[in-house]
Specification:
Elements lengths: L8 E4 L5 H11 L4 E6 L3 H12 L5 E5 L5 H15 L4 E4 L14 H29 L2 E6 L2 H5 L5 H21 L4 E8 L5 H4 L3 H8 L10 H12 L10 E4 L6
Parallel strand pairs: 1-2, 1-4, 2-3, 4-5, 5-6, 6-7
Helix pairs in contact: 1-2, 1-9, 3-4, 4-6
Bound molecules: NADP nicotinamide-adenine-dinucleotide phosphate.
Length: 249
């Protein structure tokens, strides 16, 4: 197994399951130390920790709700207290609360914007001083195809994911001169709990719009994130990496 990320400390939000866990796995397989955040599913977080440790990784689990500024900042503080620094930040934690605009409540709007988008600001703001001091940082937002193309019933989610792309571009411009890259990965529909929750007829209709004829896997997204953090990913910044089986080009 490669050790190209040995000595690197990676904080992955929402890493107890799905894409976040796959990102943490791909980074751990390359030697990174992992700070694994979750919000409520402690059992899943413990299972993920055990699986990552099997690759020889050091793993710290930190519970915290990234939609709450103090808790998001506390994640970074916990990582720095335990390991001294954060070199890689993967802003992955996310939720959807789908309703058409007419039926959407203010609470569901705010929950999705705060969890998916505001969290990226809180954690990024908290890691930047340290990354600047060390002249190295890799920050990755897990955005979505929905932020690129929009979707019925997902105005809150789409706005949050498009916001993550715009946040990525602005931050990338600000911090490039300090050796820090900032990128967004925009997956299409990926086989995780989020997609498993969709009704079967919706899944079939989604599949019929994917030229490659299948959903993505969390592992494919994790490998893309690891690539961006590795020795060959250093010239990417401000990018939106589109991976969706051809559903949106
Ligand atoms: P998932 O299986 O539902 O897992 C969500 C993860 O986020 C869990 O680890 C969950 O922790 C954590 N989380 C949720 N709310 C949180 C909060 N307030 N604070 C901290 N952690 C929180 O989701 P997924 O499908 O892997 O999606 C991960 C990311 O990829 C999301 O940002 C999503 O929008 C994006 N994405 C997903 C797809 C897809 O098709 N699945 C496509 C494009 C983009 P607990 O286990 O404690 O609940």
């Amino acid at each position: 197994m490669s050790q190209e990320l040995a000595e690197k400390i990676a904080l992955v939000t929402g890493a107890s399951r799905g894409i976040g866990k796959a990102c943490a796995t791909a980074l751990a397989q390359r030697g990174a130390t992992i700070v694994l955040n979750y919000v409520s599913n402690q059992d899943a977080a413990k299972v993920a920790k055990t699986e990552l440790e099997a690759f020889g990784a050091k793993v710290l689990i930190v519970q915290g709700d990234v939609s709450i500024e103090d808790e998001a900042r506390a994640l970074v503080a916990a990582a720095e207290n335990e390991f001294g620094q954060v070199d890689i930040l993967v802003n992955n934690a996310g939720v959807n609360r789908d309703k058409t605009v007419q039926r959407l409540t203010g609470d569901a709007w705010r929950e999705v914007i705060d969890t998916n988008l505001s969290s990226c600001f809180y954690t990024t703001n908290a890691v930047l001083d340290g990354m600047r001091e060390r002249s190295f940082g890799r920050i990755i937002q897990i955005s979505s195809i929905i932020g690129q193309m929009g979707n019925i019933g997902q105005s809150n989610y789409a706005a949050s994911k498009a916001g993550m792309i715009a946040f990525t571009k602005s931050t990338a411009k600000e911090v490039a001169r300090f050796g820090i890259t900032v990128n967004a990965v925009c997956p299409g529909f990926v086989e995780t709990d989020m997609v498993a929750a969709l009704p079967d007829e919706i899944k079939q209709s989604l599949l019929s719009n994917i030229p490659l004829g299948r959903f993505g896997t969390a592992e494919e997204v994790g490998e893309t994130v690891a690539f961006l953090c590795g020795p060959n990913g250093g010239w990417y910044t401000g990018s939106q990496l589109t991976m969706n089986g051809g559903q949106y080009m």
